[in-house]
Write a structure and sequence with these properties.
By secondary structure, this protein is α+β, with helices and mostly antiparallel strands. The chain has a domain at 28-120 and 214-378: Beta-lactamase (3-Layer(aba) Sandwich). The protein has eleven helices and 13 strands. It has helices spanning 48-64, 105-118, 143-147, 162-165, 173-181, 197-211, 215-224, 261-268, 274-286, 293-299, 368-378, and strands at 28-30, 39-42, 70-77, 81-88, 98-100, 232-234, 270-273, 305-306, 312-314, 319-321, 332-339, 342-349, 354-360. Strands 1-2-4-3-13-12-11-10-9-8 form a ten-stranded antiparallel beta sheet, with helices on both faces. Strands 5-7-6 form a three-stranded antiparallel beta sheet. The longest helix has 17 residues, at 48-64. The radius of gyration is 19 Å and the shape is globular.
Length: 380
């Protein structure tokens, strides 16, 4: 069976990929009885409008979680700060729980690479072979093509059966790259689009060459620590600190540790809390802490892959969702993630200065219904 792991997020049904307070006061937990089994983590001293929105959003998450044991929604904006809404059993998952975020990892890797571009360490149109000399299967492939999935390099997960047979047997990054490049290219570099986790394995290796450090250290220095994230970990190199929410397959079997994080690596090894992912989206796209204005523009600059659905495009490690699909939020920027037992979508809406993140923890369930239920409340 093909794994939808780390796949772009089914934002509008096409792709098969898949809040901190304005004040420095710490977040506190409160329970709203009128929202049923509400479990809300929100900043204190919130306005009446924000508290009223809490009740509506909690009810929306409860309604839209589907058959997932749990669903989480995280919101960060300048008006209400950060809130996390949890549906399902509070004994199993809390607002602080960690989730495997799959391909949202690619936003961290893309940010690190683009920050190196801004420093002149490499160029988007440099050949990948310049940094990975002697590597087979990457002739004619550029850094840009790796970032936007136009390289033609096959996916080491979905187009090779090795890892699907033994997902928990750890491989090295070089072995992962070789699994993908051992197959003929899907098309000539730069001539089409095909989502491939192998692209980000190559980018992770390039980041290590240029950063002269392990990828986890590079991501901390250029993304995680710059954003002030304290519940975000590059699993396999970091040791996650906190409670990992369980993820389940369609038969309700716990698959939380089905995959070795070494096999996900640059494509999807990040583990994080919902509030940290919201903070990351807000910081990456809404501030200059990670990338300056011109560098952020590179993430969404042409050439963009336009999906047949008419509302979704793909840039450099970034999906761009058209305003017609966001229920009044304007353009949405972000990424989704799918890995056994965990499905997520993280978006930032520049016109509203708002980040929204949704998690569900069961295969066959998707995070977009949770976000769609939140759109008319947040963006009214």
């Amino acid at each position: 069976m093909k794994l939808s792991l780390l796949a772009i997020a089914s934002v509008a049904g096409f792709f098969a990929f898949a809040c901190s307070s304005p004040s420095p006061a710490p977040a506190v937990a409160s329970t709203l009885p009128d929202a049923g089994a509400a479990q809300i983590d929100a900043a204190p001293a919130r306005s009446e409008a924000c508290v009223a929105m809490d009740v509506e959003l909690q009810a929306a998450v409860e309604r839209s979680k589907g058959a997932a044991p749990n669903a989480l929604l995280a919101l960060k904006n300048e008006t209400c700060g950060t809130s996390v809404y949890v549906a399902g059993s509070a004994d199993a998952v809390s607002s602080a729980s960690l989730f495997r975020v799959g391909s949202i990892t690619k936003t961290f890797v893309a940010a690190a690479i683009v920050s190196m571009v801004s420093e002149g360490a490499l160029g988007l149109d440099d050949p990948a072979s310049k940094y990975l000399p002697g590597q087979k299967g990457i002739d004619g492939v550029t850094i840009r093509m790796l970032l936007n999935h136009t390289s033609g390099i096959p996916d080491y997960i979905n187009e090779d059966s090795t890892l699907l047979r033994d997902p928990n047997v750890a491989r090295t990054p070089q072995e992962l790259l070789d699994l993908g490049t051992s197959h003929p290219p899907n098309f000539a570099p730069g001539t089409s689009f095909r989502y491939s986790n192998t692209n980000y394995t190559a980018l992770g290796m390039i980041a290590e060459v240029l950063g002269k450090a392990k990828l986890g250290a590079v991501l901390h220095a250029r993304a995680i620590d710059r954003a002030g994230l304290h519940a975000t970990f590059f699993d396999g190199e970091d040791t996650p600190s906190g409670d990992l929410a369980k993820g389940f397959d369609t038969a309700k079997k716990d698959v939380s540790f089905k995959w070795s994080p070494k096999n996900l690596w640059a494509s999807g090894a990040v583990v994080a809390s919902a509030s940290d992912v919201a903070e990351w989206m807000f910081t990456l796209h809404g501030t200059d802490k990670i990338l300056d204005t011109s560098s952020k523009a590179l993430l969404v600059a042409p050439p963009l892959y336009q999906a047949p659905d008419g509302v979704t495009q793909y840039g450099l490690g970034t999906i761009i969702l058209a305003p017609s699909a966001t229920g009044g939020g304007g353009q949405g920027l972000g990424h989704g993630g799918d890995i056994d037992g965990y499905h997520s979508m993280a978006l930032y809406f520049p016109a509203k200065k708002t980040a929204l993140v949704a998690f569900v923890n069961k295969d066959g369930q998707q995070p977009m219904p949770v976000l769609r239920a939140a759109f008319p409340i947040v963006f009214r």
